[in-house]
Amino acid sequence: MNTAQRIIEKLGGALAVAEIVGIDVSNVHRWTYPRHRGGGDGTIPSRHLKTLLAAARERNVLLTPADFFDEEEAA
């Protein structure tokens, strides 16, 4: 499971995340796809970070800025 998939799951699924950030659910799914399929390779666009963190707080979901980065990539 990649970073985007973990965050999407924590926030209640792709439809919930799409509603939170105001985009089509297909775009949320695309974050999880590999680059060769036109996806984000598990990366959520940074412009959505603050919105998703605020939504997590409102929903009492444990989510921090560090969750948006793959531990292996950060090392």
What does this protein structure show overall?
- This protein is an all-alpha fold and 75 residues long.
- Helix content is 51%, strand content 0%.
- Helix 2 (14-21) packs across helix 3 (25-32).
- The radius of gyration is 12 Å and the shape is globular.
- The two termini are 18 Å apart.
Question: Can I get a quick summary?
Answer:
With 75 residues, this protein is mainly alpha-helical.
Write the element-wise H/E pattern from the N-terminal end onward: HHHHH
Instruction: Give the count of helical stretches.
Output: 5
Q: Residue-averaged pLDDT, rounded?
A: 93
Share of β-strand residues: under 5%
Topology record:
Layout: H1 3-10, H2 14-21, H3 25-32, H4 49-58, H5 71-74
Name the features.
75 residues, mainly alpha, 51% helix, globular
